[in-house]
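Subject: Predicted fold for Rap guanine nucleotide exchange factor 5-like protein, 354 residues

User T.R. writes:
Posting the sequence so we have a shared reference for the thread.
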Amino acid sequence: MKEEARDTLLRKRKVLHLLSQWSSLCTDLPRDDEHAKLFLKNKALFHQISLKENWHPVRGAQREKKEEKVLLQSDQCVFSSSISAAERLHVCRRDLTEIMSPFTDNGQQRSVKMLSMNTWDVAVSLTNCDWSLFSNVHEQELVYFTLSRDTSAGHTVALEQLLQRCNETQQWVMTEVLLCPTLCKRVQLFKKYIKIAAHCKAQRNLNSFFAIIMGLNSPAVSRLTQTWEKVPGKFRKLFSELESLTDPSLNHKAYRDAFRKMKSPKIPFLPLLLKDITFIHEGNKTFLDNLVNFDKLHMIADTVRIIRQCRTDHMGNMLSQKDSVEVRTYINYLHVIDNQQTLFELSHRLEPRT
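User M.O. replies:
I've generated the structure tokens; pasting them so everyone works from the same file.
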């Protein structure tokens, strides 16, 4: 019976796989048909189920309990039908279990670990991670992301991963600071992050640079006046200089001037590129007197072409550098709290409102 059920599941997945491929090729589906509407509504789910890497037979038990840890053997796999789109199922190697544990278990140890790391090494690992994502972004993804109405087509996966990484880096800064209960250690963390931001700028990684500065400037962190007052003057001055590059006045003139002077390869702040494309698209008509507005298309192409210019220089050099294994493991598995209400509660717990 188990073999029959497994074969039936495999056949169904093959059928869904063929249907997903067919629907991608044949876009003129009868959209008034109820069955077609139902299929298109669940197309993304069907595609995920039909992926060939998911065709392996299920040997593990279904788990629905929260925060349950199970050690799997090499021939086992696990699945859950209770996970919603906003939830995650974490799977990690046995030697990485410690860094994947909940915040409440090792918050103090993590802040100590962060303080023991070399700031340049942390910046290198951040840059390497961002570079691996940035190098996979295709120029057309920027156009799809800003102009396409179909956000579920899967044309912007690499770009979305890089944007998500930027958000995670910002949330990581906030999380580490707000989970540190000791004032003196929070001051040290502030100094660390200011130096890491400076190193990211020196390594021409404006993606992580912006993320760190925005994390320190977030309302939940910037309100920690007692902590900021303890930060030495030279670090506050350095932070002010770095912060000026994120000034949005005059259409981000400070950032654009600094970025233009940086030699390639370099990693731009992608949200600003997307903003530029959006403004070009919304501020100019695609057709003028029933003719294609090629000036608009050229402006979009020039903006998109920036990422090609950023990736390599005339010598073919890349931005990635050799990094520490320990730091790389830490950076690749960042602990973040993405709930703003929780972050504010932590902030008020550290420095109550007077």
